[in-house]
Design brief:
- The complex is a heterodimer of chains A (224) and B (455).
- Chain A has 224 residues and is α/β, with parallel strands linked by helices.
- Chain A has one domain: Rossmann fold (3-Layer(aba) Sandwich).
- Chain A is built from seven helices and ten strands.
- In chain A, the strands form two sheets. Chain A has a six-stranded mixed β-sheet with strand order 6-7-8-3-9-10.
- In chain A, a hairpin with a 2-residue loop joins strand 9 and strand 10.
- Chain B is mainly α and 455 residues long.
- Chain B folds into two domains: 186 residues, no CATH class; 205 residues, no CATH class.
- In chain B, a hairpin with a 2-residue loop joins strand 1 and strand 2.
- In chain B, helix 9 packs antiparallel against helix 10, helix 13 crosses helix 16 and helix 13 packs across helix 17.
- The chains are: A alpha/beta (224), B mainly alpha (455).
- At the A-B interface, helix 2 and helix 3 of A face helix 1, helix 4 and helix 5 of B.
- Chain B: Keywords: Cell membrane, Membrane, Transmembrane, Transmembrane helix.
- Chain B: InterPro entries: ABC3_permease_C.
- Chain B: This is Permease.
- Chain B: It is a multi-pass membrane protein.
- Chain B: It is found in: Cell membrane.
Chain lengths: 224, 455
């Protein structure tokens, strides 16, 4: 993925001011910075959730290079469904559904039959240490378990890039470390890219690169 | 993957999302019950209106048709308000979930489809329940005297096509309202809800209101029997619509002013929270009680006219049997319209309050964590309804009294009991509406005890 000269404005406020960034397969990139520095905006621009006012975001997919700005809303939705995975602070899981149904949802949206989708989801949950919890609703899971469900969902469609926004923000340090282990194992260890927005230095220290933002600009990039 | 497989997968996803969920029953039930009430009321009111519409009209003036049209017109606003509130509740409790689906990559048209199918299913379930509730009600309706004879079991029933059209209209109202309330989620996969300050309303609203009411008074003064049934009906409808439009312009302005004043004087947390909530959108606060405004606006002149007619009936030998029957029918229609309006508004307030608790879940949970007692939070909810309710109960009644001042004046002197009855009805309606808030206290308790669970 390549981000070039991205500028995003909210009214008169400039959230991102000419950001350049490249993310490669198998790489984990932590985006850090104070509140209001543009971290989440950058993640949303990379994920095609918002369109930048200037600059380009391009992604090399199995079908060729795609420039996100030139895609229709429907095409960006399809891209999120097939190429991206998301793990957010609250998981952004659907509380009325069971753990297995949550994981199966993107598969159902891509047209997989229900029994096959739930079977695949159950297998993924087992791999992530959630065997026996497939039938539980999200409210019946701990914070760490819910984040594992979100990670399993991100894996369900074999996403190229996983975006995580404060994935351990609501967890205690031990659970946070365990969730991060799983997240890295399910992404970079398998050749996928991981982009994490975080305030947590411990999380950032586990990533292969740390990008620091301030006032919408990149002020530093450390490769480990 | 074949197109058929793809369709099957999407249908499975659709079913997972729209099926009733355990633990979600309370908030699914609320809109279903609201749509059931609407359907029952609509069936009953239309059956009654149909009977009046088909009543014999030997003099050819069409007074019963005016009565039928008036009854339907008065109930359109509270029915519409409740329908929209129920559909909004049904859609809003899913907003976060739909935003998640958008983030995952579901297309906006698919997400819109999920929401609309769900709203239609909820409304259809309510309409069927309403039809079932209407069955025992037909027994009661059949003994009501219309033009001096009981309506009868045949009169209490609607024809199949008319009944079906009514129930389908209920579903349509739900679908349109749900679609309108989902626009924000469909714009952004994040479902971002930005708190914006409501624009301050201009005092010019008061000037417009005074002008329109002045013109309405003039029209009513000029209206005469010589205009015929169509002319009189048209004049009454124009005045009713114009004044209701004015009330919807003036009401939010007055609600905002009152809330700002109470906020400035508030010394307790409950008032502070409730008034801030009202000021966030005085229009929304007004909308939930606008049915009371219409009921008050109709009840005052109708009660006065009934009082006046009662006096005429007692003192004059010239009143015919047909006229006495007509007075009785007017009384029935007024009582039915006011009672049903208040019932619908009470349901509407209950549904709106349930939606408000869910939308402001984070606020209530945060206040609970701060140590705010449940009673204070509950009082804040009551205050947020009683502020617009006060305006809705008083201002339209005063405007109505101004419009038909001579009749009200005569009635106050000759038949004060009617005026007292009207005032009593309005007070009873206000209490009924507050009961709508009381009914949603369990929703707040549930949010506080299980803040992380879906409602």
């Amino acid at each position: 993925m390549s981000v070039r000269g991205v500028l995003v404005r909210y009214g008169e406020a400039v959230a991102l001011d000419g950001v350049d960034l490249a993310v490669h397969d198998g790489e984990s990139v932590a985006i850090m910075g104070p509140s209001g520095s543009g971290k989440s905006t950058l993640l949303h621009a990379m994920a095609g959730i918002i369109s930048p006012d200037e600059g380009t975001v391009t992604l090399r997919t199995r079908d060729g290079v795609r420039e996100l700005g030139g895609l229709s809303d429907a095409a960006r939705s399809a891209l999120r469904l097939r190429a991206y995975g998301f793990v957010f602070q609250q998981g952004m899981l659907i509380p009325e559904l069971t753990a297995a149904e949550n994981v199966a949802m993107p598969l159902l949206l891509t047209g997989t039959g229900k029994s096959a989708a739930v079977r695949h989801a159950t297998r993924l949950l087992e791999e992530l240490g959630l065997a026996g919890l497939e039938g539980r609703r999200i409210g019946q899971l701990s914070g760490g378990q819910a984040q594992r469900v979100a990670i399993a969902r991100a894996r369900a469609t074999d996403a190229q890039i996983v975006f995580a926004d404060e994935p351990t923000g609501a967890l205690d340090s031990r659970t946070a470390s365990e969730v991060l282990d799983v997240l890295l194992a399910e992404t970079t260890a398998q050749g996928r890219a991981l982009v994490v927005v975080t305030h947590d230095e411990d999380v950032a220290s586990r990533c292969s690169r740390v990008v620091r933002l301030k006032d919408g600009r990149i002020i530093g990039s450390d490769t480990r | 993957m074949s197109a058929r497989d793809s369709a099957n997968g999407r249908l499975s996803a659709l079913w997972l999302l729209v099926r009733p969920a355990r633990g979600d029953l309370a908030t699914t039930a609320l809109p279903v019950v609201a749509f059931a009430v609407i359907s029952t009321v609509a069936l009953g009111v239309v059956a009654l209106a149909q009977a009046y519409w088909n009543a014999p009209d030997p003099e050819g003036f069409g007074q019963y048709r005016i009565l039928a049209a008036g009854m339907l017109a008065v109930l359109v606003v509270p029915v519409g308000t409740l329908g929209a509130a129920a559909a909004r509740l049904s859609a809003r409790r899913r907003e976060d979930r739909l935003a998640t689906l958008r983030l995952m990559g579901a297309s906006s048209s698919w997400v819109r489809g999920v929401a609309l199918v769900e709203a239609a299913l909820v409304a259809a379930a309510g309409a069927l329940l309403g039809l079932l509730l209407y069955l025992p009600l037909t027994t009661l309706l059949s003994i009501i005297d219309v033009v001096g004879t009981p309506l009868g079991s045949v009169g209490a029933w609607l024809s199949l096509p008319l009944g079906a059209v009514l129930l389908l209209t209920v579903v349509l109202v739900a679908v349109v309202s749900a679609g309108a309330s989902l626009r924000r989620v469909l714009i952004s996969p994040l479902g971002v809800r930005l708190r914006e300050s409501a624009p301050r309303m201009h005092w010019l609203r008061v000037v417009i209101a005074v002008l329109v009411v002045g013109v309405a008074v003039l029209v009513l003064q000029l209206t005469s029997v010589s205009w015929g049934a169509v002319g009189v009906t048209a004049a009454l409808v124009v005045v009713l619509v114009a004044v209701m439009a004015v009330l919807n312009v003036l009401g939010p302005y007055l609600v905002g002013r009152l809330a700002r004043r109470w906020l400035a004087r508030s010394s307790d947390a409950g008032t502070l929270i409730s008034m801030r909530g009202v000021l966030e959108s005085p229009q929304a606060a007004w909308r939930q009680v606008s049915g009371v405004a219409l009921a008050g606006f109709v009840a005052v002149p109708a009660g006065s006219v009934l009082g006046f007619l009662d006096t005429v009936q007692r003192l004059s030998d010239a009143v015919t049997t047909e006229q006495i029957l007509f007075f009785g029918d007017i009384r029935l229609v007024v009582v039915a319209a006011v009672a049903v309006s208040f019932l619908l508004v009470a349901c509407s307030v209950g549904v709106t309050q349930a939606a408000a608790v869910m939308e402001r879940r984070a606020l209530f949970v945060g206040l609970d964590r701060l140590g705010m007692p449940f009673s204070v939070m509950d009082r804040a909810r009551h205050l947020s309804v009683s502020t617009p309710l006060l305006v809705a109960a008083i201002v339209p009644s005063l405007i109505a009294a101004l419009l038909v001042a001579p009749v009200v004046g005569i009635s106050v002197v000759t038949a004060p009991l009617f005026i007292v009855t009207v005032a009593g009805c309005i007070v009873a309606g206000v209490v009924l509406v507050q009961l709508g808030v009381v009914a949603t206290a369990p929703v707040l308790r549930r949010v506080l005890t299980q803040p992380d669970r879906a409602l």
